[in-house]
Design brief:
This protein is α+β, with helices and mostly antiparallel strands. It has three helices and four strands, in the order βαββαβα. It has one domain: BMC (bacterial microcompartment) domain (Alpha-Beta Plaits, 2-Layer Sandwich). α1 packs across α2.
């Protein structure tokens, strides 16, 4: 699965509620050419962690829109962008999906 994302930047954000995640993802995917890699629900809380992929500029644009859209709906727990993940990082990212 990681192979199809080779060379792509990754944006990761975590919100405190699942509804805010879906609204943020919708806005992000409309704002830039990104692919949704995963939405991982936090089993202990009501939030989720989201991974989006694309070019560095598209991920930056999508993340900016996603985070702004999410602010009135919930708390942004954390967020980051990796412009060029290493092979080991790609493996670790793939390992977290559906866990």
């Amino acid at each position: 699965m990681a192979e199809k994302y080779n060379g792509m930047a990754v944006g990761v954000f975590e919100l405190d509620n699942l509804v805010a995640c879906f609204v943020a993802l919708d806005a992000a995917s409309k704002a830039a050419n990104v692919k949704i890699q995963s939405v991982e629900r936090n089993r202990l809380k009501s939030g989720a962690c989201v991974k989006i992929r694309g070019s560095v500029s598209d991920v930056n644009a999508a993340m900016e829109v996603a985070l702004e859209t999410a602010k009135p709906l919930g708390e942004v727990v954390s967020h980051t962008i990796l412009a060029s993940p290493t092979e080991d990082t790609e493996t670790a990212l793939a390992m977290t999906i559906n866990k």
